[in-house]
Design brief:
Largest sheet: 3 strands, antiparallel
Strand order of the largest sheet: 1-2-3
Shape: globular
Distance between the termini: 59 Å
Radius of gyration: 24 Å
CATH superfamily of the largest domain: Intergrase catalytic core
Number of domains: 3
Oligomer: single chain
Structural class: mainly alpha
Length: about 325
């Protein structure tokens, strides 16, 4: 770690620290942007510790038409770097959160699929050409898997044959978001559906070019672009497009639906959700449990239940104190 040095070397030290902590920070867009900040500091001849003025100056250097959120996120990146630098240089200034406005895109309310909508999506996928071929079965099985396990699309796409344990009913999800791996148990009906798909796939693809579990007609793994475009086509076919872009169903909403249905079921069963939610968070692969708690405010039904539970708690507390 460097106590002093030019800004580029200090940024590289920070990125190396992030790598040691398990983040792939130096290889993504964030690493590129931080190096851009360092080059800006060098270009303007900045000397000494990072200042708020320098950070804001760089954050505002965006392309014409850029949003306040984009500027806020640039400043957010520098704030992380400043926190690290303040360990070695007490004169480092840390920009206040929200100084240039919001720093993240607002999360849109998820579309919660009904059972009929999920069934209609699977049926429509099975009608994809070539009728009776592998491609329609791949789409239908993948959409069904997303709905009943809450996997991310990216996680389903990178599943290898060895990751799908049909004997024990467990999926191995390897180093996906946040570079975390986890085991995902499956219901027996899900295992049976995957077993039928695997049997059909192996009969159809005598020669395969990939070890991916989900394959296309040519024996190659499916890509996100293929899934996204196919879902958009099916959405039009099912007349799910006559809605605003904020309400239009997305593939990722299958994950939201799984989570919301599980929480609703627990509430109906009288289960203590606070005791169960950590397990659900692990099952979903969330970085922290607050990501899972978000669903309590994202869906009206869950928000109403949460409010009712809180009111009952307050009433009980008031009675106990009176």
């Amino acid at each position: 770690m460097r106590v002093n040095g030019n800004m580029l070397s200090l940024v590289d030290d920070y990125l190396a620290h992030r790598r040691r902590m398990g983040f792939r920070f130096s290889d993504d867009k964030a690493g590129v942007m931080l190096r851009s900040f360092a080059r800006h500091a060098c270009e303007v001849g900045h000397k000494g510790p990072v200042t708020v003025e320098l950070a804001v100056q760089w954050a505002l250097r965006t392309k014409p038409g850029s949003s306040a959120i984009q500027r806020g996120r640039r400043l957010q990146l520098v704030r992380g770097f400043c926190r690290y630098r303040s360990i070695f240089d007490a004169d480092t200034e840390i920009p206040l959160k929200g100084l240039l406005g919001p720093e993240r895109w607002p999360r849109r309310a998820p579309h919660i699929y009904s059972d009929d909508e999920i069934a209609a999506l699977v049926r429509a996928a099975l009608e994809v050409r070539p009728t009776g071929g592998l491609r329609p079965r791949t789409y239908a099985t993948m959409f069904g898997l997303l709905a009943c396990t809450g996997l991310r699309v990216s996680e389903a796409l990178v599943l290898l044959r060895e990751d799908v344990d049909l004997q024990n009913g467990v999926l191995t999800i390897r180093e996906t978001k946040a570079k975390k791996s986890r085991l995902v148990p499956m219901h027996s009906s899900t295992v049976e559906a995957l077993r039928r798909y695997a049997c059909f796939r192996d009969q159809h693809c005598v020669i395969r070019e990939s070890d991916a579990f989900f394959l296309n007609e040519g024996g190659r793994g499916m890509t996100y672009t293929q899934i996204r475009l196919r879902f958009a086509h099916l959405r039009r076919k099912l007349n799910w497009v006559d809605r605003s872009s904020a309400q239009r169903p997305r593939i990722h909403d299958l994950r939201h639906t799984f989570t919301v249905q599980r929480l609703l079921l627990w509430y109906k069963q009288g289960v203590n959700v606070d005791q169960k939610i950590a397990a659900l968070s692990t099952y979903l692969g969330h970085v922290n449990v607050t990501k899972t708690y978000w669903y309590l405010t994202a869906v009206p039904e869950l928000l109403a239940i949460a409010n009712s539970t809180f009111e009952d708690f307050c009433d009980l507390k008031m009675r106990s104190e009176s």
